[in-house]
Amino acid sequence: MEYFTSDWHLGHVNILKYDKRPFNTIKEMDETIIKNVVGRLKKGDDLYYLGDFSLTKSHGEMEGYMLALALTGANLFFIKGNHDKRDTIKLYQKYGIYLGEQKTIQVLDGDARDGIQNIVLNHYAMRVWDKSHRGTWHLYGHSHHSLPDLKDSLSFDVGINGWDYKLVSFKQVQEKMATKEYKPIDHHKPDRE
Length: 193
Prior knowledge:
The chain is built from five helices and nine strands. The protein is of the alpha/beta class.
């Protein structure tokens, strides 16, 4: 199984207020997110984390959260978020695979034309991306679900606060993309209007 998520902001007290997260304390939020994720991940699953893991000043606490993910046996892949500083990136490298600021992945998908779905992963939302006019999807975070969901764009926000503080599965991504009214526009063509 492939899962996607972003913007946990573990240890970030002000995120409760900024996102109007439904938790009484930051400890309650952190424990709920970790419990939801660890309870879902299985050995061999792929988790793509699209940035902004933690804003705690405690390196030990941040590493404890990361260790909980690693102990699931899932394959962990990390994209850099704007709040991911050197210590966080070192933990991404220690417990998973650090993909940098953007990565295109391929997921086996029986519904796709050639059986493979290309997905561009980035912390930030983009209007166009590599091969967007050929059906490549785009998943992002950062905006905390404050941007409108564009019906004609094969992209959306996988931030945890918009998904009931749980991971987004590839099946959920497929279902969401199926609701889009996508019409490819090739911005490379000189005769476009």
